[in-house]
Amino acid sequence: MHFKRALAVAATLVALTATAGCGGDGTSAATGGTPTGPAGGGSAAPAATAGATGTAGSDGDGTAGSGGGRATEQGFGGELPEASDMDALARHVDLFTSCKEVQPGPQYDAAHDGSDAAWGAQEASDPSWGIKERAVCKDLEHPIALLLISDMRAFQTAAKKSNDRFAVGRNYAVVPVGDDQVQALSPSGLAFLTCDPDFSAPSGHRTEKALVDGCVLSDYFPS
Q1: What is d(CA 51, CA 65) in angstroms, rounded to the nearest whole number?
Q2: Taking the model in full, what pTM does it have?
């Protein structure tokens, strides 16, 4: 990795400087400090890149780029896309199904109700869901709830209790409405999260354990 190479080069330069600066009394003139770099090593993974194999984990707040996050403990080996912010999330979704007019959740909720309401108005304000930020975009017909997740394990636990299903990345979730949206997201690199004990994917599809017992991630998006 570039960061490790930088450390090695910097350490070599410090050693050479120390050798060159030694005087007859055996003292060293080297005062170089330890080089620093971004947490977790290397540059942050590209935001919301489908199928990218990430070496960085997720911070406690769900953002990309730092090591050891909970989201890397689940299935799909860190291959799920991640988003550094809501704009990156919306742009990734828009590559596969229209996601326009992105608005903060409360702003959208204030002007829409009934059949035009978006998922998560109450859940986003409930700490047990582990939702960091909620926004809503629209395709030609339906709203799409976009969720940045600060605690994916808590999110999946709540999803299991409510029996809700989501399309998820490493640190976010999407709530598509209608079969067209669901199938449009199927090739997006997201995984289908379900805790339905009766869920079964057809042969040829990949299904792995999620973070919570009884929940799975699959590349099969049922209609």
Answers
A1: 16
A2: 0.68
Closest CA to 2 of 54, 56, 41: 41
pLDDT tens per residue across span 4-26 = 333 333 333 334 334 444 444 44
Sheet with 131-138, edge to edge strand ranges: 100-104, 131-138, 143-149, 172-175, 166-168, 191-194, 216-218, 207-209
| 135 bridge partner residues | 104, 146
Spatial separation of the C-alpha atoms in residues 131 and 127, rounded to whole Å: 7
Helix (H, G, I), strand (E, B) or coil at 82: coil
CA distances from 82 to 6, 101, 116, 165, 180 (A): 26, 21, 27, 18, 23
C-alpha 167/C-alpha 186 separation (Å) is 9
> Using an 8 Å Cβ cutoff, are 195 and 156 in contact?
yes
Concatenating the DSSP letter of every residue in 114-130 gives: GGG--TTTTGGG-GGG-
